[in-house]
Design a protein that fits this description.
The protein is an alpha/beta fold and 135 residues long. It has two helices and eight strands.
Length: 135
């Protein structure tokens, strides 16, 4: 059996589609790539250019859904984890790990906060590009 070539997106249930889209777009710099209206839910897909996407899913069929504090985290490489943590803090959202170097990641700075529904948002300092000039 052939395995998939790559993961294209991860979907998470959200309580307020507009608020979550605003958070992922304005705070994390993602762009809307698609909108879907299905019988049971509305979806907004956001991504960084050429990267995997986050699909925000809001159920509209009346079923009871728990959107809060589900054990999920989304991991992002970012150039400045401390600045991103401050942007999350400025939204009034929880910070669960202040940015600090992590030895198991070669000293890369890692921080973690929560999105509007309590999903973990882990921010890891992007590794230096192998083709970047070195001073």
């Amino acid at each position: 059996m052939r395995s998939p070539d790559f993961l294209t997106a991860v979907g998470i249930g959200v309580s307020d589609l507009a608020r979550s889209e605003d958070f992922y777009a304005r705070v994390l710099g993602m762009k809307r790539t698609a909108v879907f209206k299905l019988a049971e839910m509305d979806e907004v897909m956001l991504a960084h250019e050429g990267r995997s996407a986050v699909v925000l899913m809001h159920y509209t069929d009346g079923r009871a859904i728990s959107y809060r504090d589900n054990p999920v985290k989304l991991v992002f490489y970012v150039t400045d984890p401390a600045a991103m943590i401050e942007a999350i803090r400025a939204e009034g959202l929880a910070i669960t790990l202040e940015p600090a170097p992590n030895a198991s990641l070669g000293g890369a700075v890692v921080g973690m906060g929560k999105d509007p529904d309590g999903y973990g948002v882990e921010l890891i300092q992007a590794p230096a590009r192998a083709d970047a000039p070195t001073g």
